[in-house]
Amino acid sequence: MDCEVREIVDALLASYLEVGGINHIDCSNLPSKRAVAAVCEDLLRLAFPGFLDDEAVASEELELKTTACLSGVIARLKKEVARSLPLMGTGAADGGEVDPGAEAQRLVCHFLRQLPEVRRLLRTDVEAAYDGDPAAKSFEEIILAYPCLEAIAIQRMAHLLYLDGVPLIPRMMTEWAHAQTGIDIHPGARIGSHFFIDHGTGVVVGETCVIGHHVKLYHGVTLGARSFPKDGEGNPVKGLKRHPNVEDHVTIYPGATVLGGETVIGARSTIGANAFLMGSVAPDSLVALAELEHEIKNKAAHRRGVAPGGTAGDRSR
After folding, report:
1. In sequence order, which residues have a C-beta less than 8 Å from that of residue 181 and are 6 or more positions away?
2. Are 185 and 205 in contact (CB under 8 A)?
3. What is the pTM of this model?
4. Domain 26-182 falls in which CATH fold?
5. N or C: fewer beta carbons within 10 Å in the chain?
């Protein structure tokens, strides 16, 4: 089949004129997904020195390697943050225009100064994984092999940029981690210390979630929103509390769904597998589905059309 390039180009150009809302033309440049991904990888190197390097890192080299890595993060992240700032749509506090370069420098420096505190929290997350998973043999195994730690580390760092109002970049960071790990934690979620997600695949934590200390989630858990109100023109109302609060020392087992901005899971509670909650649970509660009956059949007899205790052709139950 011939491929008429000119014909296809003309059709695409016509589409660009006709279909709006997904074009970004004649505008300032947007943040680069590849650059943000590279920043995430270097931030993990800063958080866990020696774990993500191809060669062993000696203590006498640590200052030099840290300086080089940090300098690269500053240069790249400042560029991407500056590209994101026009999406704010606001000027300086006094009504003047913001210099994107200077503002990006301020935001990036403020962010990076908080990395030591992030590392303190991440140490508690490693401890929670080690204490919470009998299969964990060492801290090294957790840092190198557990997807939850990567997702939590990036979310904790992205959350700092989110709090400073940096557009787009925090979400790009957590979506990078989502693609890497299968764990989707919005950068807006507030998460206490000693947080552990066992296995992790399919976990979703919404923007306005507040998670306390020593919380453990299993795979397939959703901390999500119920239906949300719309304005007079039918547009979703933004900025509302939509996602639940989970208090200290709560465990939520696989496949559980907890929805709603007014929902609170009380401290020391356990939410069983596949539970579905849209209301609050008092502290020290155990939520479990009622026991379900299972039908067990003999597969060979079923294929022959023989019911247990019956004869061929008898399909009575």
Report:
1. 147, 148, 150, 151, 200
2. yes
3. 0.86
4. serine acetyltransferase, domain 1 (1.10.3130)
5. N
